[in-house]
Amino acid sequence: MTSSTYFLSSQLWLTLFIVLIAVFQLAIAADSGTEDKIKRICRQMEEFEFCSQTFHQNLKGGSADYIGLTEIANNQVYTKASSTLVYIEQLLRSVSDPTTRKALLVCENGYYAVNEAFVEGIRWFSQKYYKEMLNVERRAPSAQASCTSIFTTTPPPKQNPLFQINREMRILIAMAIVSGSSIS
């Protein structure tokens, strides 16, 4: 082995080692109490891994109580709803089929309602009125579900361009409501 080959091989191993350490640190970023809370919430979701990953990616300082986890979930719902509204507007500009257009308008209304519920919910949350927060946020699941059902009930059934977004949003809304319900 030449010295340049040995050097490159050593660099590759060092880089791999650093990447593995970084990944390991992300995996253990939450303290045990926070990790227990995340698991308690995420076990109630349709996809544990998406829920857990969302909390861990947004956890600051490795520790959070239910209030902190609720803040993460609320912010994720608001961000996803806002970006989805922009995406729906882009789709509406490019769709000419009237049935798909009508379905996308239903989705736009549904996501607008989700967005409004979480704007109000976040306002209540910031004032520490958690019951009021939950009351408005509990409107969001049915508003979001309208975007799923419209594509299956409108004849002929259309492929939903928001299928993955709807799945993630459904989980995020549930995370916000479950974590918010856990605040004592």
From TrEMBL:
Signal peptide region: 1-29
Family per record: Belongs to the PMEI family.
What NCBIfam families does this protein's entry cite? Answer: PME_inhib (TIGR01614)
Task: Identify the species of origin.
Answer: Cucumis sativus
Q: Return the PANTHER family for the record.
A: F14J9.2 PROTEIN, PECTINESTERASE INHIBITOR-LIKE
Q: Which Gene3D superfamilies match?
A: Invertase/pectin methylesterase inhibitor family protein
Query: Coiled-coil stretches, from where to where?
Result: none
Which taxonomic lineage is given here?
A: Eukaryota, Viridiplantae, Streptophyta, Embryophyta, Tracheophyta
Q: Which UniProt keywords apply?
A: Disulfide bond, Signal
Task: Tell me the ranges covered by the Pectinesterase inhibitor domain, including all copies.
Answer: 33-179
Presence of keyword Disulfide bond: yes
| The protein, known as | Pectinesterase inhibitor domain-containing protein
Q: Which GO terms describe its molecular function?
A: pectinesterase inhibitor activity
